[in-house]
Amino acid sequence: MPNTLPVINLMGPTASGKTALACELYEQGNFELISVDSALVYQDMDIGTAKPSKEEQEKYPHHLIDIITPLQVYSAAEFVDDATRLIDQIHAKGKIPILVGGTMLYFKALLEGLSDQLPSADQQIRDQIMAQAEQLGWEDVYEELCRVDPVAGMKFKVSDKQRIIRALEVFRLTGIPITELQAQQPKNVAYRYIFHNYALLPDRLELHQRIEQRLNDMWEIGFLNEVESLIGKYDLNPDIPSMRCVGYRQALNFLINSDKSHNNQHIMREQALFATRQLAKRQYTWLRSLRENHKFTTFLTLKQAQEDLRICYR
């Protein structure tokens, strides 16, 4: 028998305001919050992930925050297991789960299963890779692959051009190594939920301004100090999943491999800003793909979302 209680999926790019919206809904109804964020799962990574503060988490408790250390790995398959278990527990209490976050792979896995999670070919990105190879040589392209996906780098040779193109294509589209995606175990759960899908898709210019302001705030409240503390506590390297989170890789490289000059710090901040904007671009791409296959309500502004959802779930 299908479960008639809804599951609210609240998605959007980074800095779009979705967490604030979820917390506002939480205050006015019989809800529980489940985080759908591959960065918020890590303990001790608070500032750079824009994690809700301890006080905010006490007021608005979120499931699936701070569940592993930065040295551990958390897969989409594990997320589906944890999320479905939590959804059932929340429904058993007579409450409605709100799943909120920007990790679109997790939402896709929940909505569709994991048997076909690799993105389709993107000719524009393939052309970019080919142009890079023609200008700089296949050695340069292969070295990039080794940086972003060391496991694929060990499997492939420089002469494996088609496989290298596909691996880099997938990484540029998703921000996740193809070997990590392929390692996910196929998982097609017979879903019994009624999903209510909502997407916050603000104007790109406005979003870029919000991203820049958020990053500036992070630097001001001690993001670099946080990464220094992580270096002291854990055996970190740029290739582990936690350090692929935007901002952390750039900060880690700055602290370990540079002379920490003012100029290098400026370069690092610009690199982090660019990486965060690229993340938002990938999130928009994922959302467009999901909206092709699932019913969505899309909001262009946070105010519009607040007004409409307040009416729907009051």
Automatic annotation (TrEMBL):
<dbReference type="GO" id="GO:0052381">
    <property type="term" value="F:tRNA dimethylallyltransferase activity"/>
</dbReference>
<keyword id="KW-0067">ATP-binding</keyword>
<keyword id="KW-0819">tRNA processing</keyword>
<feature type="region of interest" description="Interaction with substrate tRNA">
    <location>
        <begin position="162"/>
        <end position="166"/>
    </location>
</feature>
<dbReference type="InterPro" id="IPR027417">
    <property type="entry name" value="P-loop_NTPase"/>
</dbReference>
<dbReference type="GO" id="GO:0006400">
    <property type="term" value="P:tRNA modification"/>
</dbReference>
<keyword id="KW-0547">Nucleotide-binding</keyword>
<dbReference type="Pfam" id="PF01715">
    <property type="entry name" value="IPPT"/>
</dbReference>
<feature type="binding site">
    <location>
        <begin position="14"/>
        <end position="19"/>
    </location>
    <ligand>
        <name>substrate</name>
    </ligand>
</feature>
<dbReference type="InterPro" id="IPR018022">
    <property type="entry name" value="IPT"/>
</dbReference>
<feature type="binding site">
    <location>
        <begin position="12"/>
        <end position="19"/>
    </location>
    <ligand>
        <name>ATP</name>
    </ligand>
</feature>
<protein>
    <recommendedName>
        <fullName>tRNA dimethylallyltransferase</fullName>
        <ecNumber>2.5.1.75</ecNumber>
    </recommendedName>
</protein>
<dbReference type="InterPro" id="IPR039657">
    <property type="entry name" value="Dimethylallyltransferase"/>
</dbReference>
<comment type="subunit">
    <text>Monomer.</text>
</comment>
<keyword id="KW-0808">Transferase</keyword>
<feature type="site" description="Interaction with substrate tRNA">
    <location>
        <position position="103"/>
    </location>
</feature>
<comment type="function">
    <text>Catalyzes the transfer of a dimethylallyl group onto the adenine at position 37 in tRNAs that read codons beginning with uridine, leading to the formation of N6-(dimethylallyl)adenosine (i(6)A).</text>
</comment>
<feature type="region of interest" description="Interaction with substrate tRNA">
    <location>
        <begin position="244"/>
        <end position="249"/>
    </location>
</feature>
<comment type="similarity">
    <text>Belongs to the IPP transferase family.</text>
</comment>
<keyword id="KW-0460">Magnesium</keyword>
<dbReference type="GO" id="GO:0005524">
    <property type="term" value="F:ATP binding"/>
</dbReference>
<feature type="region of interest" description="Interaction with substrate tRNA">
    <location>
        <begin position="37"/>
        <end position="40"/>
    </location>
</feature>
<feature type="site" description="Interaction with substrate tRNA">
    <location>
        <position position="126"/>
    </location>
</feature>
